[in-house]
Design a protein that fits this description.
about 40% helix; alpha+beta; 8-stranded antiparallel β-sheet; globular; 10 helices; about 25% strand
């Protein structure tokens, strides 16, 4: 399963408004991102999900890893910083994308105007050009949210960290300081009881006809549940839906 693909769909299937104040403030957010890179020696990536463009700013960390000289910046026609992703060990990259998927589900339970008050933190292993392994603290902020709840701008920060300071992936409420550990979050509300029952039977290999007989519902209702499951989990087929559901602990 390509979790990056599921996350990409979640971003790209948003309904973006044509006229918002965020476009007028884009220059300001670019200055913020460049400032983080300069002051924290971080790699800062500001992604415009509507325009599918990212602005990358390289601090001293990028020079340490051999990715780029300090102070360099560039823009790319993608919301994904693939050059940086290639340095992350594969299992951590998949976990990074899954954490971000969980973060989005967490935010959907909050008021839209509060989305920007939360940020995600996780720790990744990256391999530098010197072939050495580095521990990196990665943070995600959704700094531009449209009135309808669509996430327009995302800011990702990468900083070098010490192994002694590694923590579990967590979400922080930047106003109250409260920490929510991802492993402790409950995603049960994502699917209805009937949808979870249907997905469990799909996972066990039941056909739609067999699900209909087992749950005493019509084939039409089974198909509707299937479509709802794919839509809510942003999966393209039942196999992907089952894998995502297992990651979110919706099925055993």
């Amino acid at each position: 399963m390509n979790i990056n693909g599921e996350l990409n769909d979640k971003f790209m299937l948003q309904r973006f408004e044509n006229d918002d104040e965020i476009s007028a403030k884009l220059d300001k957010y670019q200055i913020f991102a460049a400032g983080y890179a300069d002051i924290e020696n971080a790699i800062a990536v500001l992604s415009d999900l509507k325009e599918r463009r990212s602005y990358i700013y390289y601090g001293g960390m990028a020079q340490t890893l051999g990715i780029s000289p300090k102070g360099k910046s560039l823009s790319i026609d993608s919301i994904w910083e693939e050059e940086i992703f290639r340095c992350i060990i594969p299992e951590d990259l998949e976990r990074k994308h899954l954490d971000e998927l969980k973060f989005i589900h967490f935010l959907r339970s909050k008021n839209r105007q509060d989305y920007s008050s939360y940020y995600l933190t996780n720790f990744l292993s990256m391999i530098g050009k010197d072939k050495l392994e580095y521990i990196v603290r990665h943070r995600v902020f959704y700094v531009g949210v449209q009135p309808n709840g669509s996430i327009r701008l995302a800011l990702c920060l990468y900083n070098l960290a010490d192994k002694k300071n590694i923590m579990e992936s967590n979400i922080c409420d930047s106003i109250s300081g409260k920490i929510y550990f991802l492993e402790q979050q409950d995603y049960n509300s994502l699917l209805s009881k009937r949808e979870k029952e249907t997905l469990e039977l799909i996972f066990q290999g039941y056909s739609s006809k067999e699900i209909s007989a087992t749950l005493l519902i019509s084939i039409h209702t089974v198909n509707r549940h299937r479509q709802n499951i794919l839509s809510k989990l942003r999966a393209t087929n039942s196999v992907e839906a089952c894998k995502i559901a297992k990651q979110l602990k919706l099925i055993q």
